[in-house]
Amino acid sequence: MKRALALVLTLSAVGASAEQPVADAVWEAVHRLDRALVAKDGAALGEILTEDFVGAIPSGRQFSKNEYIEHHCRPGVGLTAIADGDRSAATVRVFGEVAVVNRRVHVRLRTPDGSEREIEVQRIEVCVKDGGGWRVASGQGTEVNLALRP
Length: 150
Description:
alpha+beta, 7 strands, seven-stranded mixed beta sheet, Nuclear Transport Factor 2, Chain: A, single chain
């Protein structure tokens, strides 16, 4: 019995360590998305997002790929910084060629009136393996009401 348990624990550890490079590659894809959003880099966003991408922002507004790129590449408004919280609090779950990332980010954005606002956003991204790399197929952010935290 002890040998069987030791074997299961060993195989679980090997499986987890084998998955780490994949999780790291998915994590990097999500960070490429963040960098492209802040840089308002439409070309990079076009490469990172799948053709059938669907995204939603904290207001609840939903976008197709082209609408999402257009929305985030408006000059003078939108995201000016995205900072991840503690990665150990984030999860990257890989299911073959699909991965789901849940994370909390701190976002700074410029509003149309020119003022700046900072918010916490709970994010979920769905990534798919495409041609050896990872791309983002869907993403959604929910603004966290810090006043309601326990």
